[in-house]
Sequence to fold (722 residues):
Amino acid sequence: MNSHRYCVIMCGGVGSRFWPFSRNDRPKQFLDFFGTGRSLLQMTVDRISSSVTPENIILVTNRQYSDIIRQQLPQIKESNILLEPARRNTAPCICWASRHIYALDPEASIVTLPSDHLVLKEIEFCKAIDEGFEFVEKGDRLLTLGIKPSSPNTGYGYIQQGVATDGFPGIYKVKSFTEKPNLEMAELFMNSGEFFWNAGIFLWTAKSILKAFDKYSPEIAQTLDAPASTYGTPKEPEFINDNFQNCINISIDYAIMEKADNVYVKTVDIGWSDLGAWKALYEASPRNGEGNVTQNCKVLTTDCEGTIFAVEGDKIIVAAGLKDYIVADSGNALLIYPLKDEQQIRNIVNDVKNRFGSEFV
Amino acid sequence: MNSHRYCVIMCGGVGSRFWPFSRNDRPKQFLDFFGTGRSLLQMTVDRISSSVTPENIILVTNRQYSDIIRQQLPQIKESNILLEPARRNTAPCICWASRHIYALDPEASIVTLPSDHLVLKEIEFCKAIDEGFEFVEKGDRLLTLGIKPSSPNTGYGYIQQGVATDGFPGIYKVKSFTEKPNLEMAELFMNSGEFFWNAGIFLWTAKSILKAFDKYSPEIAQTLDAPASTYGTPKEPEFINDNFQNCINISIDYAIMEKADNVYVKTVDIGWSDLGAWKALYEASPRNGEGNVTQNCKVLTTDCEGTIFAVEGDKIIVAAGLKDYIVADSGNALLIYPLKDEQQIRNIVNDVKNRFGSEFV
Fold:
C-alpha cells in the first residue's frame, strides 16, 4: 500500500434528519442502520482500508464525539482523531486536516470522505479511489467523484462534466456545479447524461488543496496559518483550540470547488446514497412483499404500503392503513410522519427541544 | 352505613382490546387510563365506598391477579378477595360470591359491579345505588341499572323498560333484553326512549339471587352447592378449587336476567362508559384543539384529527397526517391502528402471540 496515501473522514455532523434515531449525542454516522453490526462510520473506515493503511486514516469530528469514536474505532490511534472545538462546515475541517497531513508528509495525497453515506459496490469504490489517487498524484488537480443520477433528486448538488482527460478514462474536466436544482432542471440534468451527483468524495494532494485554499479561500488559509512546527506536533491542539472557531462557516464546494479551475470529476457507479434522510434510507433498503421496509424489527402490518418501520430493541409494531410513512421509535421518542414531509423533521426536532426539553432530541 | 349491604366487584377479566396497554398480566381494570393516579379498579372501590363499608367489599378475580390486587387495594382484607381457579364468565362468579356473602350474612343485600367501567357522575351513581338497595331490600326483586343511550351503540346490550313501579320513581319492570343490536335497530331503540344500555350493575339480596340461580341456572347452583359450613369458612377455597371449574361458562345476563320474571331496571344518568375499547376511551376523554386525545402524554401533531395517543412513560410522540387513529405505545409493543377497525385488535393480539411469542401480549 502506498504510504503517501491518506484518508480524511469527516464525522462531526449532527444529522437531525434521522430523529429520533439520530440524536444530538449519537448522530447518523454512528448508527447501525442496516442491522449489520457496523455503523456507517465503521463501514466507511472498513471500506477505505483496502486503499489506505489505518495509520494514515485521519478522523475529523466535533470534540463531543471523541468517546463514541474511540469506542467504535479502536484501531485508529488517538493522534489521528482531530477534535474540532466548533462546527464550521467542511472547508475549515478539510483545511485543518490537510495541514496536519502535510506536516507529517509533504508528499501526501488525500482522499476526503463523508462518514455517513452508503456505498453498496465496494470493489468499484476501491477501484475508483485507487485510480483517483493515481490521477491527482500526477499533477495539480482537484478531483471529485460524480455519481450517475438514478432519479431527478432535487436534494443533491450536480456536477456537469466537460472535456475528457487524456489517458484517464472516466475522468473529465468539470464544466459547472449546480446546488439543489428544481425538479424540472433536475430532470433535464438527468436526461442529458452530462450531470452527476456530487458525493462529497474528493481526492487531491496535500500540496494542491493547500494551494487552492491560499488562492480561493485565503481567510481560512490565514486563520489556520500556524507558526512552523505547530501542525503535526503537540502544539497543534492548542493552536486549533485558539483559532479554529475564527474560521468562516463554509462548505468545501463553495469555498474551493466552484471557484477553482483545476477541478475534475471521475464518473463512477458505486451504488451510492447519501442516506440524507428516511426516504433515502427507504430507497436503499430491501422491501418486503407489501413494499414496506422493516429495519430489522418485528412488524405486523395490514394494508400498509411504502412505509419504513424502524424500532430500537426487541419490540413489536402493529400498524394498519399507513401509506408512505416513517414509523421510527427510539428511546424516549416516537415519530409517525409522512415520508413526503420528511424535510420538516429538522424543524420538528427544534420544536421538540423548545417545547419539551433537550432530553428528547 | 347499613352493615347488611355488600358489594361484589368482578375484576378477573382479560381485556385484550386495549393491547398494548392491557396485557395478559395487567388487564384493563388495573390501568390508570386517565393519569389520575388511580386505576379503574381503584376508582370503582373508591366510588362504592360511600355506600358500602370496605369490610363488605368482596373482589372476585382470577388467581393470577391476586398480587396486583393486594398491591392496588391494601385496604381490602385478604379474606374478601375470592380467587377463581378458572375463567367461567359472570354467572358462576356471581353465584360463588353470593353464596360466600349469604354464609356470612343471610340478610345481605348486594350490589355487583364491573371493575373496568367509567362513571363520571359519582353523586348520581351513589344515589342510584342507595335507592337500588332500598328497592331490592323490600322484596324478591332483581334490579339492573339502565343507562340512557347517548348514541346508537351496537356493542352494548339494551334493556327495554316496561311498567313503572309504585313508589320507586325511575324503576321499571323490564320488558325485554336485547344483546348487541344492528345499527338500524340501535337507532330505533335510542329514538324510542324505552331502551337503556345494560351497564352490568346489579342489585339484589343474597337470598333473591341464590333463589334465581336455583330456578333459572340449576347447573351452576348444583355445581357450587357445598356441604353446610363450607362457604365463609376455611373450607371454602378448597371446595372452589375442586368444583368451580366444572361450572358452565355463561354470563349472568343469559343465565338469569333474561329468564327471570322479577327483573327491574333503574334508569340512571351517571356519565357511564364501559370503556370497552379505544373508541370508548376516546369518547370519554377530553380532546385538545385538533380533536385529538392525548392520554397524559407529550404529543406534537400536525394535521392529525380524531386520534388517541397513549404512551407509557416520559416519551414524546411526533405525528402528522393521522385521522381517527389509535397510537398506543407501551412496553415492548407499539400499535398504530385505525379507530374504526379496533374490533380487529383481539385477533391481532392472537397473531402477535402466535408469530412473535407471548412476551408481546
Chain B touches chain A at residues 20, 298, 300, 302, 311, 313-322, 327, 329, 332-338, 341, 344, 348, 351-352, 355-356, 360 (CB under 8 Å). The radius of gyration of chain B is 21 Å. DSSP finds eleven helices and 17 strands in chain B.
